[in-house]
Amino acid sequence: MDFNLKLINWYSVKKRELPWRKTSNPYYIWLSEIILQQTQVKQGLPYYDAFVTKYPTIFDLAEASETSVLKLWQGLGYYSRARNLHTAAKYIVNELEGQFPNTYKDLLKLKGVGDYTASAIASIAFGEVAAVVDGNVYRVLSRYFGIDTAINSTLGIKEFKSLAASLISKDQPATYNQAIMEFGALQCKPKNPDCTTCPLASGCVALQKKLVDTLPVKLKKTKVTTKYFNFLVCIDPNKKVLFEKRTKKGIWQNLYQFPLIESEKSLSINEFDLLDIENTFLKTTPFDYSLYNETDIVHKLSHQHLYTKFWIIETEHLPKEAISIESLTKYPAPVLISNFLHKFTF
User: Fold this and answer.
1) pTM here?
2) Domain 3-208, CATH
3) Under CATH, which number does the domain 225-343 receive?
């Protein structure tokens, strides 16, 4: 039986019932793909439901404020996905008169849509024969065919894309693409896959050569840096605080946070004077301070580890842009800040 037919047969029995698999609406399929780009289904499903409920059409999403979109996305991480989602929605509504692009080539023009996402939407929503290659697909193909080319190398990306294109079912591209991705997620898992029940076991090179644990191969490129963050939680007697929008480019762009000062090391309560407060209003305002957490809160991101302290600053006067404590939760904030807001008693 052909490779793709085995996958399709397996999928017909083993697939999970997920809401975006019950529709051909490109808006919903696009939304699910963006959410699941770097997120597992279990974590992403509640966010998908929330977005569909609040923004049932692409027109609703386009009309929303970026702050509202980021707030709904809060906790999902990789916030550029939300910003790109919103930008693309406005582009489709304003430039394309609400008509969703219906080809792989045109889908690539959307902000935040790359080869994988364009292939997924084109095949699932419009039946185009466009092969998907994501982490799950890399794993299935590298193991089954015994390919040790690094999946994140230029050569590997081309090799696996070409192989995927040669295998996709021309009659059922949508079903096949979903099948191979689901197979990688449920059957050919990263660790300890159950090869005894695998329908592809008889032809799997990795199983025959005992390479299941070593494939796929991935080059280590990401250098993790360490940073030391000091958030200044500035409070006045009127229960107002300073909460700033991050405007610089980065993963937290347009999210809100307390005034931030980076330091060269983790600081103790006796080292407060090492903080560079020259560019803050505190330089000319009397204040008292205390340290919320003596032990750093470590927040690990894909490319950096943040060692964080929250300094409680009590002062009689805050700048006019200060907001009420009650309104803090209305603003989209990184998980690191959100967790603090849930625990700290103002």
Assistant:
1) 0.88
2) 1.10.340.30
3) 3.90.79.10
